[in-house]
Design goal:
Blueprint (H helix, E strand, L loop, with lengths): L1 H29 L5 E2 L2 E4 L3 E5 L9 E10 L4 E27 L4 E25 L4 E12 L6 E6 L2 E4 L1
Parallel strand pairs: 2-9
Antiparallel strand pairs: 1-2, 3-4, 4-5, 5-6, 5-7, 7-8, 7-9
Length: 165
């Protein structure tokens, strides 16, 4: 009778260990990070904002940012801005809109627009774009500041890729 209890306890412990092992294995398999393509993660969020790296500040250039937001079923809203430390001769932002090409695993540019201002410290531009559903889209931007007697200062920012379902 004692041996039946021991066998029963050992069997129960083995079943518990097997169930726990399978559960832990499933948790590990589901713990996957989003795919990264050229610095942008492919995410399912409604928007993403990118900023210039902190170490990219210059004598005149302070920072830049860009963003992308879902804006309806087949539309995205894109934005870019450049900020200088003070009034400069000219500053600009160039905004590039990319669509992820799953076949070659790269970003394809589908649109670009820019804005330049003179004798100011801030420039921003935005655009609403109609897009195809079922793709990831991202924005990246170039931020440029020009001041007489100094070389042009330029840096970049980019967002993650958001899915337009």
């Amino acid at each position: 009778m004692i041996s039946k209890k021991i066998v029963s306890v050992i069997t129960s412990v083995m079943v518990f260990c097997c169930v726990a092992g399978v559960s832990l294995t499933n948790v590990k398999a589901d713990d996957s990070a989003p795919k990264s393509v050229d610095g942008s993660y492919l995410i399912s969020a409604d928007s993403s904002t990118g900023y210039t790296p902190n170490n990219e500040r210059g004598k005149h250039l302070m920072d830049g940012q860009c963003s992308i937001t879902k804006s309806g079923t087949k539309r995205i809203y894109t934005y870019g801005a450049t900020t200088a430390d003070h009034t400069v001769d000219a500053l600009a932002v160039i905004v590039y809109v990319d669509q992820y090409n799953e076949k070659d695993g790269k970003w394809d540019q589908i649109d670009a627009f820019s804005k330049k201002v003179e004798n100011d410290y801030y420039v921003a531009t935005s655009k609403s774009i109609q897009v195809d559903r079922g793709y990831y889209y991202r924005v990246h931007a170039s931020h440029i500041v020009r001041m007489a007697g100094s070389p042009d200062e330029e840096t970049f920012s980019y967002t993650d890729g958001i899915l337009v379902p």
